[in-house]
Records
---
Amino acid sequence: MLYREWEKFLKQPTILDVADRAGVSKSLVSLVMREPDRVSDASRKAVLDAAQELGYRPNAVARSLVQRRTNVIGVILSDLHNPFFADVADGIEDAAFQRGYRAMLSSGFLDPNRERGAIETMLELRVDGLIMLGSMMKVVDIEKVAASLPVTLLGRHTRSKVVDSVGVDDSAGAEAAVDYLVSQGHSKITHIHAGSAAGSPRRRIGYEKAMRRHGFGKHIRLVKGAFTESGGAKAMTTILESGDLPTAVLAPNDFAALGAMETIDSAGLSIPGDISLVGYDNLALAALPRIGLTTIGQPRVDLGRDAVHLILERLDENRESARHLVVPPNLVVRATTGPPRVHSTGL
Amino acid sequence: MLYREWEKFLKQPTILDVADRAGVSKSLVSLVMREPDRVSDASRKAVLDAAQELGYRPNAVARSLVQRRTNVIGVILSDLHNPFFADVADGIEDAAFQRGYRAMLSSGFLDPNRERGAIETMLELRVDGLIMLGSMMKVVDIEKVAASLPVTLLGRHTRSKVVDSVGVDDSAGAEAAVDYLVSQGHSKITHIHAGSAAGSPRRRIGYEKAMRRHGFGKHIRLVKGAFTESGGAKAMTTILESGDLPTAVLAPNDFAALGAMETIDSAGLSIPGDISLVGYDNLALAALPRIGLTTIGQPRVDLGRDAVHLILERLDENRESARHLVVPPNLVVRATTGPPRVHSTGL
DNA sequence: CTAGCCATATGGAACGTTCCAATTGACTAT
DNA sequence: ATAGTCAATTGGAACGTTCCATATGGCTAG
């Protein structure tokens, strides 16, 4: 038993040890592990018993080497702290597991260089596919990676011919928000946008489109902010100082909405009494007491599942051409929206 | 070039391809990759150039097989969504990377069975060490795992002789909270606890100890809640309905504090005017506008770093006996605490 | 009694590295 | 000239699996 006592951890038993003890060949043991049905009852029992007694555990490293396949899907999260990514990662792990794969997560630390390093590690580890959540890298660089393995870009849109993508229809989300506000009686709806940051342009387009569709083109008003709390706060300050108050504000995401909320609060105005506020992303914090932010939700777990399926289509079904999936978002109504005060209901 | 066109992805070049092209032996190539200094300048350049031209990337799977070491540390997060774990994971990835290791994250989905499965996968993958963040499993089961590799338990205390642990001094944190409240003039401080849930007993002990130390033993009051928002809300309701209001409440964690906050709000009482409130954990949400929760912070990144070091001590320095690290927490003062109203300042 | 078949089981090569003992050859000291 | 030294390099044996072509042996049909 302790025949190698000088080793800190006992040498793990191999398939050969099991074969010896069971009195069969290593090939048979291997077969029992992979396709138990193809083996006679007696052998199967002998092997299984021996494996049990020795505490044998297949060595995935050796298996991967000969199979040239690790059954691992690499996932690079640009930011571990983003709760949106955490949800998506859950969906990924789940879907991967059900198809016999494992997910290996790694953080990109919001830094393209560290992200690049994380990818390099994944490639050395020979993961079978790569899912990038909110990557900070340039698409051309990602396309180079896609020469070695299937890559899916999640949460970013692309028309690439080699990397797949799955994203949310940001335009539709913004439209839904405007539609809802209009249904509540709003017409003076201002949009804080985040410039050309990922996702923002499409949200802006949806906003403008919906405003025009409702005949409120003249009320379109865009204020530059950012995807951050302070970006939202500054933009809101600009709006308040302009003196021309809208009855509703559509923020580019929940963080910005939070900043706007703070600004409105400290100006002594009420939400939604004076101004209705809508965020985007439906982060967990949007549901917190005292916050209760109306926002646009994204089917996160579905996104994860879809990303895995895209990888597996290339791996197991030999798909060659890129696919780009777009899933629709949904509106989540909470406490920061309501009808505008009567005197401003227009008409 | 496309000599294997039928393959979806080009066969990756191996060390042999590089050796051929550089006109040297495979052993030399291997040496260049590992210890470039031991090779003549000419050979080094030839090999590096050849590798570059072929796009060679070392195969970590093959290397791991022969070295019987993967240079990967497995990390099981009981819950990906817990922002506390995300911070710690950051610290782990960072520290591991600096020591030449990679971290492989996996979620336990808050379910002991799935956690068990995640461990099994890690073991098959032959990770070199395992860090468990907030594990839901029994310590005896984890100790069995520790027979195969070094295991560090993080965020849970244990006296185990085989698994290491690193945790926060929960008792000291609760003491610090009480000390601060007393310094503000409070004496009627009530503690909502979470029964025997991980961490709660120590926090309660710290509370009681500090209360006695200040001579407020008679004001010790414990109300059973839980580590959840609803748990905090219910406990707070109990307190309010008792009619005997404390001037300050120490919640078992931030979520519970949030629930308590909601209850106090809807009772029409003010924070901190009527009741000061202290949480525990310093989650990101504690810093949000409108929330501004005073709470006990934990040095998360340090925790991660320490956990990695514990693993590496066993791996690289042959430590045999278990170590249990305890790091001190720190108080973060925000808006939910202040002096009690004058009429209740006691004396 | 022989041929053929089928289910079951086997040995050896391969996967892409690292490790180690052994080889080479230039140079130095005698 | 000869032996010794040293740096640089090499070939072959591992590592623990899977895969594949082949062997074994009992059974059935002629």
---
Amino acid sequence: MSDVARLAGVSIKTVSRVVNAEPGVHADTAKRVLAAIDRLGFRRNLGALNLRRGSSTGTIGLVLEDVGNPFYSGLTRAVEEVARGFGRQVLTGSSDEDPDRERELALEFCARRVDGLIVVPAGLRHGYLMPEITSGMPVVFVDRPPGDVLADTVLVDNIEGAAAAVAHLAAHGHRRIAFLGDAPDIFTAAERLRGFREGCAKAGIPYDAELVAMGPHTGPSVRATLDRVLAGRSAATAVLTGNNRITVHVLRAVAGGTGRPALVGFDDFELADLLDPPVSVVSLQPGTLGRAAAELLFARLNGDTSPPRRLMLPVHLVPRGSGEVEPS
Amino acid sequence: MSDVARLAGVSIKTVSRVVNAEPGVHADTAKRVLAAIDRLGFRRNLGALNLRRGSSTGTIGLVLEDVGNPFYSGLTRAVEEVARGFGRQVLTGSSDEDPDRERELALEFCARRVDGLIVVPAGLRHGYLMPEITSGMPVVFVDRPPGDVLADTVLVDNIEGAAAAVAHLAAHGHRRIAFLGDAPDIFTAAERLRGFREGCAKAGIPYDAELVAMGPHTGPSVRATLDRVLAGRSAATAVLTGNNRITVHVLRAVAGGTGRPALVGFDDFELADLLDPPVSVVSLQPGTLGRAAAELLFARLNGDTSPPRRLMLPVHLVPRGSGEVEPS
DNA sequence: CGGCATCATGACAACGTTGTCCAACCGGCG
DNA sequence: CGCCGGTTGGACAACGTTGTCATGATGCCG
């Protein structure tokens, strides 16, 4: 900026005035300054500006599990969209389901003085965020609740979703339903298992631990599990999967085989409707989740000081055919 | 920091020393300072640090078309991964194929003094980045070349890919091949069209403009185009699609119908192998693209001053069945 | 006991920007 | 001609941090 001032033959402060379009600068002077700015390719340093103004850095942080997963990239896009509406940039980071990495990312964002934070929790402890929460930085947790702090949270109705899936399968005559869920220490996985059990109970199906396999899952592990639960005289006739990745593993495992079980997947995914048979799912829109979280965050940034809220977004069953297969 | 100093009864400078683990602080003093830091929830302000040090902000900017698109989210993930290895955070923004938005995002990132920039160009003019390029900020363009500046660029071999797809279809007896590409002012779309023409020429197939429809495409427009090119006595027997979204539109349009044409799609996508028939594609890994770009960027940041490079990554045809359908 | 090296700590400037305040200049008016 | 108000430009401090240098205390040696 001092270079610009020198070239234009004015003081630094005058350049600042021009940059900020403040009144009180002669038109000719302003023109000279603008020319100098253009010639030198000057860009005002936002870091210094934020330091000086001390108010807002114009950024928010988003910590999620994996941007590469379509579910989270849809969420990211929605957050970005809302942030743009409020003139903010988004810093993203993937935790890979590692609590340490989540913490590291969140604290890094805090050190960068983001205006707010949206977190898909990987761990169960979030006390490390107490200083920021106490000092008024808004934090919103999405998809899973925080471990040991009280803060805004946006969830989906996992229990209801899983129960609805079971009801759907039961309505089509299934009595032996397998559940392949994610690692049980992941909140959503535990909730979906709970919904699965409730659904079974409501349908009068006795809970059979033999038919439940919680993750983490890989392609081979899913294949092995299916070999087990789909075999024998008490074989499962239907499968409920706990998230989009497991659903894909199952589809791949049963592809080409005969006697494919009925299937309902948690999370919708692209092309589910074009498979044969089309895959019925419990649908939750990542965009809706992201938008809700971001809107909550910006409401806080705009002065909403009501007590922490817990939003529970509805899910809905999308029957497409794979869940309507009758038991053989 | 001054609060910490006051609480610990030391000077600000001593706190700074402790925070930076500098030698020359008495163990007892350090302990007092650490206790104060913990009690106050102090976090060192990275913005101020960057201002003071003036060197690196520890961030890079990534401007792409749409994080929500699996292709770009895969790319994003790869960039994030590499950046993490070099201790950098990633700022992302979606341009939605709007040159103004691309410019706005890129300049915003520059104003935040990112250490480097990775851009999937939306427009054809990038002269606005000249000041930064001249001043040594590394900029890498991915997927498409920049318009009017000389800079590192990572592309894929679109021409070869499209030509290979045509050769594949021709080898299976197709002589009437339709091409549905993106808007012709998008570099990749133009290149793929060129590859399509070259492939046709090489296979001795006369180029028929009637069978080519360039975007932008929507579901209905794709449907209408297919109705046209697949009808009549000179109907196309095969279709080549110019990107993953168009491929999905085509799949949806032909789903349920009879007499489905042979199909090869540009860009691989999840579940392509599980459709019926499985979809043959020209595969280009977004992760490979992102990694190459990020590695190039960090090579520059680490002092590589060789002339701008242009990387051309290979693509490969993945035959899965949909391209092997014989013409009826 | 004086001198000197060593250690622990602190004062100050500077990074790039802007808010606050003051100075210089202009024209017009009494 | 002198004064006043308005218009334009500049000096300075401050945001939070660290690099440079100085200061004071301590201990050791001759």
